[in-house]
Amino acid sequence: MEHLTFGKHIRACLAINVFTMEWKMNLRSFLWSVLCILMFFPSSAFAINSVLSGVFDGSEPKTAALPGTCLADEPLGYLQAGSFQVSESGNYYITDAYNVIGVDISALIYSGSFDPNSPLTNLVTPNGVDIAQVANLSTGVTYVLVVQHWCTNPDRTWVNMEGAWSVTITGPGSVSSGLTVSVPQMTEGSFAEDGPTTATECGDSQYQESGPVRVSTTGTYYYTDISINYEVDMCLQIYSAPFNAANPDANRVILMDDFGSVELESGKDYYFLVQPLDGPQTGEFFYVFAPPAPMAITYAISGSWYFEPTTGQGFLIDVFDSANLMFLAWFTYDLERPADGTNAMIGDPGHRWMTAAGPFQGDTAELGITWSSGMIFDSEVPAVSNSSDGTMTVEFFDCNTGRVSYDLGSSGRTGVVPIERIVPDAVPLCEQMTQNPDKPGPL
Question: Which domain holds residue 254?
């Protein structure tokens, strides 16, 4: 059970500053300090929360670090994600919802247009949005949202890291954009003075319960408290049965404060309980609760794969993120064994290999097969002769298993080969890169 008791207002500021100093950089602590100052000003009720989201797929262009990033020396991947408009003029709180739990970004809002060669022109958020920031937005203006990876490090965990990003916009009006996603109704609401109360580890305060809730996929679900940035610092508890105020610890699956993750199973009923943290408080709450991202191909898939019953055959796979390209070499044998006594000058007379290449999307790559012939061992002449004939579909279920479906074209041979890694060295990196939240939306 996870319980991060940061408290409200100044205690939240101090604790989050410690967190960012330990895990991020002093720059982020400074930005949190600025944000904390904003939190002391009286807040007004915000009736409308909007969530904009998209995906980094590894093929993004790079540009010099924009405001709000760690100001790395090397270029960082970015997306000119899309445009949006607001229905009412006023101050809006912009938040990187996946600052801790997923792909960490800096979000930048431009008025009218964005020019990567002149990144300060038309910039509405001069400091970028690393964690949270206030921006004054006006009706009738088309804004451009640009998102950039927050930083880079030698382990490549932040270099064009693949996965979903999410930006929330909270203010007096609605946001119209092709990037807007629908979120469950239970993730927003308000605490009233006359609401029911209960005493839990979150505090003795009002609460709201939603449920039963069923998730469609078994896996890791991700939570971020958004309203801590402008209204109520809330606490989320999830139960496997209806909440019992007389026994608040019974059937509790997890308790989360500012952010966290939880393993949920499809087909089971869950009940979500929200409370102000540390005591009664009126005001609005808003949080993001996101499902697990589906398996996605990254360069960490690269390596040697095989089907154990056919040991001695296998696949060498290489993935090029920036080119959105997978290369595959299949080391195998002829359709029929050569006649007994057939001699080879090197290797086995029945040994064959083929190559395939093509683009990938999500967990699947579609490859065209190339047949090479005409050459002899370790020689430039005669020149190679390449021909295309057949296709392969390579799917991955997780970082350790998948399958190859093949159609060898004019030979008429088709089939499916289940595959697994021969050496699991890259599995931890693959899981680190792929175990992130999906875009917020239906559970």
Answer: 186-290
Token readout for 298 is 């990254």
Is the pLDDT at 65 greater than 70? The verdict is yes
- Say how far residue 24 (Cα) sits from the centre of its chain: 19
User: How confident is the model at residue 14, as a pLDDT?
Assistant: 32
Q: Quick one: pLDDT at residue 42?
A: 41
The residue from 134, 164, 182 where one domain ends is 182
Band (321; pLDDT cuts 50, 70, 90): confident
Q: Is the distance from CB of 255 to CB of 1 less than 8 angstroms?
A: yes
Reported as a single tens digit per residue, the pLDDT across 138-154 is 999 999 999 999 987 65
Secondary structure E strands in 177-218:
180-181, 188-191, 197-200, 203-206, 208-213
The pLDDT, as a whole number, for residue 408 is 94
Task: Reply yes or no on whether the pLDDT at 56 is more than 60.
Answer: yes
CA–CA separation, 317 and 224 (whole Å): 36
In sequence order, which residues have a C-beta less than 8 Å from that of residue 34 and are 6 or more positions away?
A: none
**Domain count of the fold of the chain:** 3
Of the candidates 233, 268, 290, which is a domain's last residue? 290
Q: Which of 263, 256, 270 is nearest to 202 (CA)?
A: 256
Q: Is 345 helix (H, G, I), strand (E, B) or coil?
A: coil
Say what the pLDDT of residue 436 is.
Answer: 85
| Alpha carbon distance 16, 312 (integer Å) | 54
Residues 235 and 252 in one domain: yes
- The pTM (predicted TM-score) of the whole model is 0.77
Query: Based on the domain organization, do 203 and 237 belong to the same domain?
Result: yes
Number of Cα atoms under 13 Å in the Cβ half of residue 177 = 26
Tokens of 344: 């080879």
Considering the domain architecture, whether residues 34 and 146 belong to the same structural domain is answered as: yes
pLDDT of 26 higher than 60: no
Helix or strand or coil: residue 43? Answer: coil
Instruction: Tell which residue, 200, 195, 171, has the closest CA to residue 50.
Output: 171
Nearest to residue 420, comparing CAs of 314, 332, 325?
314
Q: Which of 57, 55, 48, 61 lies closest to 87 in space, CA to CA?
A: 48
Confidence of residue 9 (pLDDT cuts 50, 70, 90): very low
Using the 8-state DSSP alphabet, how is residue 231 labeled?
A: S
Contacts of 66 (CB under 8 A, 6+ apart): 76, 78, 106, 108, 119, 128, 146, 148
